[in-house]
Give the backbone structure.
Amino acid sequence: MKRPNMSSNKLSHHTERQKESQINHPSFSSIVKALPATVPFVPPEEMERQTGHSIRLRLGANESNFGMSPKARQAMEKAVGKSYLYGDATSYDLKGELATLHGIRTDQIVIGSGLDDLLGLIVRTFLNPGDAVTTSLGGYPTFNFHVQGYGGVLHTVPYQDFRNDLQGLLQKAHDTHSRILYLANPDNPTGSWWGAEAIGELRRSLPKGCLLLLDEAYIDFAPLDTIWPLDPSDPQVIRARTFSKSHGMAGARIGYAFANQETIQAFDKIRNHFGVNRAAQAGALASLQDTAFQRMIMKEVAKGKEEYATLAAELGISTLPSATNFVAFDMGTPKRAKLAMDTLWKQGVFTRVPGAPPLNRLLRVSVGTPVERSEFARILQEVVPTLS
Amino acid sequence: MKRPNMSSNKLSHHTERQKESQINHPSFSSIVKALPATVPFVPPEEMERQTGHSIRLRLGANESNFGMSPKARQAMEKAVGKSYLYGDATSYDLKGELATLHGIRTDQIVIGSGLDDLLGLIVRTFLNPGDAVTTSLGGYPTFNFHVQGYGGVLHTVPYQDFRNDLQGLLQKAHDTHSRILYLANPDNPTGSWWGAEAIGELRRSLPKGCLLLLDEAYIDFAPLDTIWPLDPSDPQVIRARTFSKSHGMAGARIGYAFANQETIQAFDKIRNHFGVNRAAQAGALASLQDTAFQRMIMKEVAKGKEEYATLAAELGISTLPSATNFVAFDMGTPKRAKLAMDTLWKQGVFTRVPGAPPLNRLLRVSVGTPVERSEFARILQEVVPTLS
């Protein structure tokens, strides 16, 4: 391989000086210039490098530690062998499967390289700089990151009893003339949820021209009556989902959204058409078809949540009901929550505590495998008595 | 798995009517509203579905039909097993390897889910709506797609003798106060290239505050003297590269760019941090380390280009010199080029003809494997005499 540039950073001083006189820094866009340096999440690998602690129990990113369906894994491994070819930019097979499964049309579906990618696309499609957006205070940081990244203005509504305040969100969306109302249902980071009836009522009360963006990353874990009937013909609703949670494919980067056909066409005007990798498309298709594996995951996660609740009760801590694959332990105060997270971290247990009040007294713990759960129980039993 | 929404499209007529009265279409952003419905490339799978012809020889997307390094493939297959976990959002290992290889710092590197993703990121970072951008007429469509998708204004300069017209591009960038001057070097779709000296001169003559965006997707195939020394400290230059071409990982979706540290920090303010899939990161790292495989690919591609040139000469066609993994056959007229492409397509051979003059008389053919090349030769020998 040709690499004559390997030592190219060793420019002579003469050249360096010559260059200095010729440099005129290009300006960043107005939006980028105005943004603070921020990242939505510091990845656990970076936290390990920064603190020198290694993770033994990775329970802080709501991944599915049960792994993916063996059939999905096999499909992905097979697709690696063909990964010298670009993947299908239209995700024809996967959209066909999703359409059949949900009784909708393929032109009501968009596939993205993860739900985060789709949140960015949705924000970009609807928002002009300066436009208002309503979300919960302490809601999903990556959504906020995209709103700010496209010059939008965030308006937030505090959680009420650790649930999204639907009335408050509606009121705020009306008051601020919001273009988007974002709701994660079931919710991250609390695990709480609203039933189909409440969501229907929220939809009916939306301000004119306001988009209801439902982030349904955790919908597969929710009670049946949480799932509001799909109606992609409604241009005021987008429902975004992912293969990262129940399908255990977080590292594969693939998600999807249901939307009105006209909205899907608008996405096509700007989306990164060849962005979804080939193996992820194959894996997602196989995973959708492996319903037995999905049922097993649902059962395991339900069992794990019960175990966490029992564990917490034994330690005199309460947990929030959860319709997701994680449980929020209410540590009573932000100080105790932070101390618990830090102490666990030093023992190799990765969990998260949200930053915004009142959520900052919650310790969010993903449901791990049975072995991980028993190890977590052992460590938490040691840690809790040491918390002041 | 819970899917009560499978029949949810069957809303009652009563509900449909109720809903109609409540719908207020949210508006798309001003930029999206103004955009025509367009996609940068119709994928070959979609062309197959539309025409009913199956591809036997896939030589139209400049993929590397030699496949990826067996070591990269193994690393990717192994990483699939861990793909229930998010990949490292900082791509620490891969950036470290690239930094070592090129003698630069990791804070001068950004990793994206393919070069297309990075082109979008770069445009978004530097461009305000209405800002001017200079590129060649008939240059890479996906770059143009991103410029228009962020509201930029494209100014184009025709190719001269099937090469990018550096003087013309410079003049246009000056005249239009362009914020970005885009140059693919080596070039797609012509395969032509400029040497390091010409690029250095272009850099020195850039308008103040104009960014030189070098798309170096094909740089690994270029003669040594094409490779302009790397200097990521220069804020006016970004060099974008990919694992899709010489590394044979198009379907894995991973690319990188070298830029000034301040620019990398700006990217971090808006990029999709968890967008690069886990398997691609592992594969890219392994591929970089497999230099023997890289050398083999270079040799094979060089041999294939010679074969194509000989084939063309035998058929009375000329080919353009190429510093890439494809060869542009000059069919003499746009009509002959189009006819050749269509006739080949009906025989299962996927090639491309650029849309813009004077490039629209070129038939662009990726270098295939020896078997593919001999099959292509056989078919082209049949097709050429039938062209009017």
The two ends of chain A are 60 Å apart (CA to CA). The first helix of chain A runs from residue 13 to 20.
